[in-house]
Amino acid sequence: MDIQVKVTSLSCVVFVLLFSPVLCAKDGDVRLFGSDDAWQGRVEIYHNNAWGTICDDFWDINEGTVICRQLNYSDAVYMYSVASFGQGTGPIWLDNLNCNGSESKITDCPHNGWGVHNCMHKEDGGVACVHQDTNPTNTGSCSFDNDLCGYINADDDDFDWTLHQNSTPSFATGPAHDHSTGYGSYIYIETSYPRVQGEMARIISPEVNNIKCVTFYYHMKGETICELNVYIDDGNDRKMVWTQKGEASKVWQKAVIPVKGYSSFKIMFEAVVGTQHTGDIAIDDVAALTTSCDALVPSGAKPIPPDLSKIKSTIRLVGNLSSAGRIEVLHNGRWGTICGRHFHLPAAKVVCRQLGFLDVESIVPCCSIHKPGKGIIWLDNLHCEGREAAITLCPHRGWGVSSCVHRQDVGVICKTKDTLKMVRLAGSEHDYKGRVEVQIGGIWGTIMDIGWDIYDSTVVCKQLGFSGASAVYSAAHYGAGKGPIWLSSAKCIGNETSFSQCNVTQHQIQWNGPWWWNPHRRDAGVECYELRLAGGKSTSEGIVEIFLGTWGTICNERFDMNAAKVVCRQMGYREVVSIKLGYPANHTNGTAPIITRLQCNGGEAALGLCQYVPLFGNIHSCTHAKDAMVKCDVPLPTAIPPGPNPGM
Predict the structure, then answer these.
(1) CATH topology identical between 29-130 and 422-527
(2) Which of 159, 348, 460, 590 is surrounded by the fewest CB atoms within 10 Å?
(3) Nearest Cα to 544, choosing from 630, 635, 458, 639?
C-alpha cells in the first residue's frame, strides 16, 4: 500500500475518522504514486475531478523538470517509462507532452489534449526528483559516494567500517554494487579472517538536531554473520533502536527507525562478527529526516536512478549515427561487443537509457546498419529486467565468456525526441509526390502499403508543409526503396499535424534477397496538393486555387458553405464570411485544370478528404467563369502560413 503521496497546491485538509487526512486537489495538480519514496513514483495528474496518469511517449527530462518543480523539488534526475512504478488506474489524461523545461506547471506544456492518447497503462510515466534539498546531507544523511560525510569510526571498537565501491573482495557475499546508482560507494565490514566471533565495528554520525526519523539501506549476506545494530547516543546514554540478526537478504533492504524524545544526538551503526568467516554487512544511503516516519514503509530496495553522465563512458554505439549502431562496452580498459543471442528488449532499454536516450526503438542484428566488431566479445546471455542502471548490472555468463562470433554482434536504435518526425518523399523528380520514407534513429526507411489511405497520406503531406494529399499510391508506384521497412500501418485520423501522432505499427524488415520476393514492392506513395486564395483584396479572400502539378481552380458546382469551412480552416482561419459563385476570373489561365463536384461535410481536416472529380482538359459544364471564391475571417491561434516546406 502506498502511504506517502506528495501533491501540489493542496487547497484543504479535511479530517475524518481517526483524523485521517483527505487531500483536496484542484485541476492540474500532480502527485507521485507507487513508491515509498516521496521524491519518485508514477506521475498522476488531477483533471475533471479524477486522478489519471501520463503516457510515456516522448517522455524526457524536460517534462520531469517541470513536474518536479511543481512538486517543490529543484529538478528531475531520471525519467521512468513502461509503468516502472506499477500500472495506474482510471483515465490516461495526457500524451505526447512536449515541454521545454521552463514551464511553471505541466499543463503549460503542449500536448495532444486531455484524454487524447493511443496508450495503455503499461506505458505510464514516472519520475525521480532531486531530493537532497529535502534530506539534509550535513546532519547525519550520507550517500557515501564521495566520503563519510563526517561519520567517524569509534575508538572503542575492534575494527573499522570501510568505504568501498563495486563488489566486496570475498566471493558471493557482499553487494555487487552500491544501492544508489550502481557505480557509487557504500560502507561495509568483512567477517573474514582475521576477524573473530564477537568483534565489533562501530561508526558514529555527526551530532544531529530535531531528527524524527532515520532511514538507511542494508545488505547482510551470510547465515552466521551475527548482527547489525543501530543506537542513539545523546551524550548521557546509548540506546539501541534497531537490530537485525543473521542473513537478511541478498539484495539491499530499507530500514525505517522512528525517533522520539531526542532534540540532539548521534547515530551509531554497530556490526558484530558471527561464528563463521563467510559474510559481509553493508550500509548505504543514510537519511536523517526532520519529518515523521509515519508515511514511510520499509521495503526491499528499489534502484535509485543513476547520474547518466558518469556511466555513459562505459558504453557506446559504433556506427555513423549517435543514436544507432553496434553496442560496445568498456571493461578492464578494453572495448568489446555484446552477442545478440538472448539479447531482448529489456536489455536494449537498459542500453539506450544508459546512453541518455528516451527508450529503445528497435534491436538491430548484425550486419544491417553496423559491421561486425573486432577484438573481444565481452557479454553473452544477458538477462535484464529493464530497470537496471547499466547493462553491466544485468546477469550474464561472465566477462569474456561467450561462444559467439562477431557476426552475432548486436546493435540498437535508440528512441529520440525526433523519432518519426522526419518524413520525406523520394523516387520522383517533383517535391510534392513520391515514395514515403520516414527516419527512425537516423536511418531512412519506407512504409508498407497495408491499409495505406488518404488519411495517412494527408498527415504526411501536412507534415511536409503542403495543404493535404490528392492521391494515394501503393505497390511501389514510385519505385522500390532500400533499407528497412519501418512501418506496416499508420492508422492516422487525418487531423494530426505530425506522423508521430498516428497509431503507427512498427514492422522492421531488412531485405537482402531476390527482387521478386522483395517486400519493398509494397512501398507506399503519395501526391500532395497546395491551396491558396488568389485575386482577392487580401490574403484572406479570393478564388480558391489548388496545385495538382499545376495551379487550377474549383468549380462552384456543389461548392457550398461546408466546403468553404474546410478551405478557410486549411488556410489558417476559423470562420467563413461569405462564398461567391459564378464570378468570372479573368486572371486565371483558361486551360488550367478544374476540380468539380466537390462534396464536404465541413468537418474534414483537409480538402483532400472531401469527394471531388478532377477535370483535365475535359471542361464539361464548368468553366473558369464558375470558379469558386471565399472570404475568410478570424485567424486561428496556430495558423500555419501556406506554402510547401520540404523539411520538417
Answers:
(1) yes
(2) 590
(3) 630
Spatial separation of the C-alpha atoms in residues 377 and 438, rounded to whole Å: 33
Assess contact for 129 and 156: CB atoms under 8 A: no
Q: Which residue would you say has higher pLDDT here, 327 or 20?
A: 327
226-238 burial, b at 16+ Cβ within 10 Å, e below that, comes to bbbbbbbbeeeee
Among 51, 43, 34, CA closest to 90: 51
Do 409 and 339 form a contact (C-beta atoms < 8 A)? yes
**Do 564 and 577 touch, CB atoms closer than 8 A?**
no
Domain boundaries, the chain: 29-130, 152-289, 308-414, 422-527, 530-632
Q: What is the pLDDT of residue 436?
A: 93
152-289 maps to CATH 3.40.50.2000:
no
Choose which CATH entry (3.40.50.880, 1.10.20.140, 3.40.640.10, 3.10.250.10) describes domain 29-130: 3.10.250.10
| pTM of this prediction exceeds 0.85 | no
- Mean pLDDT check: name the lowest of 122-131, 295-304, 577-586: 295-304
**Residue 210 burial by CB count (10 A; 0-12/13-18/19+): exposed, middle or buried?**
exposed
CA 302 centroid distance within chain? 19
- Residue 573's pLDDT is 82
Angle (CA) 90-95-98 rounded to 5° is 145
- Cell 519501418 belongs to residue: 486
pLDDT the model gives residue 135: 38
C-alpha cell at 636: 486561428
- Domain spanning 308-414: which CATH class is it, in words? alpha beta
**Alpha helix (H) residue ranges in 44-112:** 61-70
What percent of the residues of the chain are helix, what percent strand, and what percent coil, each to the nearest 5? 10, 35, 50
CATH code for residues 422-527: 3.10.250.10
* Mean pLDDT lowest among 57-71, 84-98, 259-273, 513-527: 513-527
546498419: which residue's cell? Answer: 369
268 with 233: CB under 8 angstroms?
A: yes
302 confidence band (pLDDT: 50, 70, 90)? very low
Picking from 56, 55, 51, 50, the residue whose alpha carbon sits closest to that of residue 33 is 51
| Per-residue confidence (pLDDT) for residue 309, from 0 to 100 | 44
pLDDT at 70 over 80: yes
Contact between 428 and 434 under an 8 Å Cβ cutoff? The reply is: yes
pLDDT for the residue 232: 92
Burial bucket for residue 624 (CB in 10 Å: 0-12, 13-18, 19+) = buried
3-state class (DSSP) for residue 433: strand
pLDDT of residue 643: 36
R_g (Cα) of the chain, nearest Å: 32
Alpha carbon 73 to chain centroid, angstroms? 20
Q: What is the mean pLDDT of the chain?
A: 77
Cell of 95: 500524451
